[in-house]
Amino acid sequence: MQPFRFVHAADLHIDSPFKGLLKYEPRIAQRLKDATYEAYSNLIDLCIAQDAAFVVIAGDVYDGADRSVQAQMRFRDGLNRLQDHEIQSFVVHGNHDPLDGRLSRIPMPESSHAFGPDPEWSTASVKGTPVAQIQGVSYPTREVHDNLALQFTPPSGALFSIGLLHCNVGGIAEHDNYAPCTVDDLSATGIDYWALGHVHTRQTLRQSGPAIEYPGNLQGRHPNESGPKGALVVDVDEAGRVTSRFEPLDVVRWESLDVSINGLADVDALLESAHAAIETERIRADERDLVCRISFTGRGPLHHDLSADNALEDLTNELRSNLSASASLIWVERISDRTAPTVDIDALTDRDDFVGAVMKRSLAALNHEGSEATLRESLASVLGQRRFSGVLEMPEDDQMAEIVEAARFELAELFERED
Ligand SMILES: [Mn+2]
Q1: How far is the CA of 134 from the centre of ligand 1 (A)?
Q2: Rounded to the nearest whole angstrom, what is the distance from the C-alpha of residue 58 to the centroid of ligand 1?
Q3: Residue 64 CA, ligand 1 centroid: distance in Å
Q4: At 172, phi and psi to the nearest 5?
Q5: Residue of 42, 317, 10 lying closest to 163 (CA atoms)
Q6: Distance 217 CA to ligand 1 centre (A)
Q7: Contact present, 311 and 319 (Cβ < 8 Å)
Q8: In this structure, how many other beta carbons lie within 10 angstroms of the beta carbon of residue 73?
Q9: 138-180 pLDDT per residue, tens
Q10: What is the reported pTM?
Q11: From ligand 1's centre to the CA of 199, what distance in Å?
Q12: How far is the CA of 166 from the centre of ligand 1 (A)?
């Protein structure tokens, strides 16, 4: 078998409208509008740079069934660029771009094969020599409830085989249950690699025999599609063994950040912390443009400041204007407050009731000499149980005080919540 490389992408959602853009500053809104186009262009660049034999696209090329003319032309332009580099393309359509949607008369290049409503085989070649056989199927209409995997036919001949399918494997809850199937259904076909689409979170359902992969979508479109988005570069060696690696292709990255108020004295310190968290994310994102959703977390006196009228809105605006000087385009989409007030451990300890008694006892455990031995004894009886063996270990001597202190704090929080 001749070794070869291909690229597996899915869910391009070209021309995705991005909801709620009116709330955004115009330059951010424009950036997001262009993002799905640019990510697609990055996909084409990747195929060329990696010298791929071909690309497979597993559905939802377009965001809407009534695809815009612009989206179709730009998609075609990308496939043309691939053809110029002798890179074939194999495409299926999914629930967002089914075959019964509006299609303009825009001819696709000869090197591109779009699959119809029934599973069929096609062949991928490198310089005239066949290297792989690919079977795919497109959604005839938006809602497909049949198990399409069961309609695939087993491969014949010695060529490496790829199944191209837009489907929900194992009823993944965050996505519509279209073309539902299982890992077993896919494995039973005898196909070597399943190039799946539909689920926007990248995941490997099976490493080999067959490899079953969701590459995730190409460009995040809202706060729940956070982190790197892109495609898989897949190498097949002479023995038909598969190795794949992820390449990020997104141009605007979505991230959710937690910023803790623990130990922070004032609002300036909080803004500084938020800045630092965003800067870390910007570097992690290879200096891409960012849209951040920030949650303030933790406990402390700042909780009080954050609950003031308009405080979050004011801080959002402050951060946005400070960030406008950043080297990347960074947009704080929203800040939410999940902070809590400081626990007053002393007040709880002073009480004359059950709570006070427990807190006094725990304070004694912290201060009283010899209490360490008692604690160690009680712990030993717990850790000695079979179900904890190899899971939990007896703490070191110098960890004991720290653990008791943390437990006291935890207790105080529980009591306060109960109040
Ligand atoms: Mn999709």
Answers
A1: 21
A2: 9
A3: 10
A4: -60, 125
A5: 10
A6: 7
A7: no
A8: 12
A9: 999 899 999 999 999 999 988 999 999 999 999 888 888 999 9
A10: 0.82
A11: 6
A12: 9
